[in-house]
User: Which sequence fits this backbone?
């Protein structure tokens, strides 16, 4: 029997690319150039599976390929808001993602942003590199203490819990959260996490707010101008989930007005474009969507796509089916 034909839309770590060749007739993307919508549409007409990622916008138009050959979208990422799930279902496509393996690396990165913005690490680094540093002095670049402060978590799923664990156990932070589907009591106890009934309640009490909600239509601009005004004046906003959960224009205005003290962002509304209003600010830390970017995690993510696809083509249920 011939092997299923699969296409990988971006470069993956070498060893996973090599592993793909065993069960599949694989087309790799050695140049790592993002595929155009027309190329993606062709891919759905030509291959049995498309291994996509967050930079591929798989909308109804891409999925209108006729005839459609693909039966599986193996998304390299836990988030799958790049895929129009209703359109995929309408064309009988199975969709899988890569949960769990990136929880720790993404939580580590959320803490990196939180610590960096509180302690002015980006600003300090730029200061040293520019040659402007004239030496230690008691009032130089004073930041904000993290230990013992209150962290508000919006979305206490896997990644939100991993952040809470680090913050509570490592930095003795008090943890508040909002989540319409909270974890069970035993988990909350182990994290020392206190529920709040609304996002607004969390915003009003937290010194740091970290967003870990999924990018659903309901969560679009969840953090908007009104809600930014509800944050404490010295508070910081951290977003390592998805860019469109925060209204970037409203955030720029809030930073200009001093409504909040700063922000740490790994994700943006129109990646890779970043609002100019953020680029020239010292009190924001900006990273290029690095949440899951460790060698270990990216290899594990690729292996998950592989595992899901092997199960699918063997006629079994893929472990991480989302549609
Ligand atoms: C994900 O998995 O959704 C990340 O944002 C990409 O690493």
Assistant:
């Amino acid at each position: 029997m011939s092997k299923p034909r699969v296409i990988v839309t971006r470069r993956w770590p070498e060893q996973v690319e090599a592993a793909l060749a065993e069960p599949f007739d694989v087309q790799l993307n050695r140049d790592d150039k993002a595929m155009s919508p027309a190329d993606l549409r062709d891919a759905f007409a030509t291959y049995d599976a498309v291994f996509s990622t967050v930079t591929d916008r798989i909308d109804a138009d891409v999925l209108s390929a006729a005839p459609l050959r693909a039966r599986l979208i193996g998304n390299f990422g836990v988030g799958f808001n790049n895929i129009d799930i209703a359109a995929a279902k309408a064309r009988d496509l199975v969709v899988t993602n890569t949960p769990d393996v990136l929880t720790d690396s993404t939580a580590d990165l959320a803490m990196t942003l939180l610590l960096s913005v509180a302690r002015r690490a980006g600003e300090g680094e730029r200061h040293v590199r520019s040659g402007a540093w004239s030496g230690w002095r008691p009032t130089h670049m004073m930041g904000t203490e993290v230990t013992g402060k209150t962290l508000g978590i919006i979305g206490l799923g896997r990644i939100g819990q991993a952040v809470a664990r680090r913050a509570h156990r490592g930095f003795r932070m008090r943890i508040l959260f909002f989540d319409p589907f909270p974890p069970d009591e035993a988990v909350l106890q182990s994290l020392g996490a206190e529920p709040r009934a609304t996002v607004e309640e969390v915003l009003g009490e937290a010194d740091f707010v970290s967003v870990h909600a999924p990018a659903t239509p309901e969560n679009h601009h969840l953090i908007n101008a009104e809600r930014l005004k509800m944050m404490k004046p010295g508070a910081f906003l951290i977003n390592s989930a998805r860019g469109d959960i925060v209204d970037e224009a409203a955030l720029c205005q809030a930073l200009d007005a001093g409504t909040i003290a700063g922000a740490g962002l790994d994700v943006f509304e129109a990646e890779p474009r970043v609002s100019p209003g953020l680029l020239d600010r010292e009190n924001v830390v900006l990273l290029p969507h690095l949440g899951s970017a460790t060698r270990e995690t990216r290899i594990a993510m690729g292996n998950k796509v592989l595992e899901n696809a092997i199960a699918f083509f063997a006629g079994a249920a893929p472990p991480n089916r989302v549609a």
Summary: The mean pLDDT is 98.
